[in-house]
């Protein structure tokens, strides 16, 4: 009886495990695109503040959102083979993402670091520092786009 | 005493030239580095719009050697130059091809940049006229043309070095002082009225390129009209 229960539990865990690991490629691409799209809105909010009238609350909200996405482990969405495929639109991921692991790892780390810093700076409400940090953060986006994103 | 040199490039042409050289260098650096420099990249781009528009106008109303009519490179003139039969002052027919090539390329480069976006936080001032899909295409064109531009600039500098070292012609001095050794006809025209016209053309170009004639974007909805979460 006990062993049956154990077996059932193991089976259930295994099932749950595969369920969470089995992301459909199309979904993976969609979620990637959604993440970047949502960050674009938040980048625009910070930009509006650092180039126009500064709104601390807006910048904090936006920086926190970007930080959360940056730390969400989006790398898990780059399933092998998803350099082709269509999510909300055709993916623009370059195959080099899967071959130049060290390089993209560095680019991703740089982005994480600056996203965390952006949230920290936003919380202080220092407008000049926020502007500077926004530039640094944007540069880390470019760091990846330049090498790993297809230009249409 | 007879002068040993004559007036070749007028002051507006020279100021245009050196401003353009600096602006293109600055645009290139800011575009490569990106990040916080992107807003400067956009501003410099608008400056280049103004400079190119000025030069196009100055090619019609400027002084003798600055005029397109003076140096327009007809196939016959290019062939004559390559045979060594061309005699003239100012831009020779092959140099004229380079001038028009650079101006045309820069015009295409700023035009594509006006509609571009970088998928980060930058959008050109006319982005809304293009929409995202077309903007993406134009951004790719913008990137591609930047590489062509490097080639043409290298060719331009190489040609100056070639004329200086091989042909013994100093092209730099006339572009700095406006004067060239020899007995050529001094440049005429391009007075204050012409300058005013060219500057007005440039100002209008910058205004339009900066979105000055676009409908203003709709005002953001009042806070109370969006849900409070």
The strand line-up of the biggest sheet of chain B is: 1-2
Find the count of extended strands of chain A (DSSP E, 2+ residues).
Answer: 0
CATH class descriptor name of chain A: Mainly Alpha
Q: Identify the biggest protein-protein contact and residues per side.
A: A-B, 22 and 17 residues
Number of domains of chain A: 1
Structural class by helix and strand composition of chain A: mainly alpha
Can you characterise this structure?
The complex is a heterodimer of chains A (152) and B (229). With 152 residues, chain A is mainly α. Chain A has one domain (25-148): Cytochrome c/b562 (Four Helix Bundle (Hemerythrin (Met), subunit A), Up-down Bundle), CATH 1.20.120. Chain A has 6 helices and no strands. Chain B has one domain (20-214). Chain B is elongated. Chain B starts with a strand and ends in a 20-residue tail after the last helix. The mean pLDDT of chain B is 94. The A-B interface holds A 36, 40, 43-44, 46-47, 51, 131-132, 134-142, 145, 149, 151-152 and B 33-39, 118-122, 136-137, 139-140, 143.
Summarize the structure in short.
By secondary structure, chain A is an all-alpha fold. Chain A is built from six helices and no strands.
Task: Please specify the SSE layout and strand pairing.
The complex is a heterodimer of chains A (152) and B (229).
Chain A: H1 2-21, H2 25-51, H3 56-70, H4 96-99, H5 101-124, H6 127-148
Helix pairs in contact in A: 2-3, 2-6, 3-5, 5-6
Chain B: E1 5-7, H1 11-33, H2 38-61, H3 68-71, H4 75-83, H5 93-114, H6 127-165, H7 172-177, E2 179-181, H8 192-209
Antiparallel strand pairs in B: 1-2
């Amino acid at each position: 009886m006990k062993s049956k229960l154990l077996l059932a539990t193991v089976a259930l865990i295994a099932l749950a495990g595969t369920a969470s690991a089995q992301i459909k490629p199309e979904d993976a691409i969609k979620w990637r695109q959604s993440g970047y799209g949502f960050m674009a809105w938040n980048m625009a909010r910070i930009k509006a503040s650092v180039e126009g009238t500064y709104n601390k609350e807006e910048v904090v909200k936006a920086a926190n959102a970007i930080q959360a996405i940056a730390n969400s482990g989006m790398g898990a969405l780059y399933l092998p083979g998803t350099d082709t495929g269509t999510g909300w639109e055709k993916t623009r991921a370059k195959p080099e993402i899967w071959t130049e692991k060290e390089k993209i790892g560095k680019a991703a780390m740089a982005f994480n670091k600056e996203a965390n810093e952006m949230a920290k700076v936003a919380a202080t409400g220092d407008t000049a520092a926020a502007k500077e940090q926004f530039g640094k953060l944007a540069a880390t986006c470019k760091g990846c786009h330049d090498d790993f994103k297809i230009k249409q | 005493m007879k002068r040993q040199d004559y007036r070749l490039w007028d002051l507006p042409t020279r100021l245009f030239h050196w401003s353009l050289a600096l602006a293109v260098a600055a645009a290139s650096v800011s575009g490569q580095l990106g990040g916080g420099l992107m807003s400067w990249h956009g501003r410099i781009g608008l400056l280049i719009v103004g400079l190119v528009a000025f030069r196009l106008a100055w090619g019609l109303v400027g002084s003798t050697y600055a005029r397109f009519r003076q140096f327009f490179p007809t196939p016959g003139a290019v062939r004559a130059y390559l045979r060594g039969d061309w005699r003239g002052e100012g831009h020779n027919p092959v140099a004229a091809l380079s001038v028009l090539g650079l101006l045309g390329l820069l015009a295409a480069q700023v035009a594509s940049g006006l509609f571009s976006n970088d998928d980060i936080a930058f959008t050109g001032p006319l982005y809304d006229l293009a929409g995202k899909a077309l903007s993406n295409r134009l951004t790719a064109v913008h990137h591609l043309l930047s590489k062509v531009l490097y080639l043409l600039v290298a060719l331009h500098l190489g040609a100056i070095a070639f004329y200086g070292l091989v042909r013994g012609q100093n092209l730099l001095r006339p572009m700095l002082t406006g004067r060239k050794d020899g007995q050529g006809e001094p440049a005429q025209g391009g007075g204050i009225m012409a300058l005013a016209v060219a500057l007005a053309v440039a100002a209008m170009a910058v205004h339009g390129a900066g979105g000055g004639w676009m409908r203003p974007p709709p005002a953001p909805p009042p806070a109370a009209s969006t849900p409070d979460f």
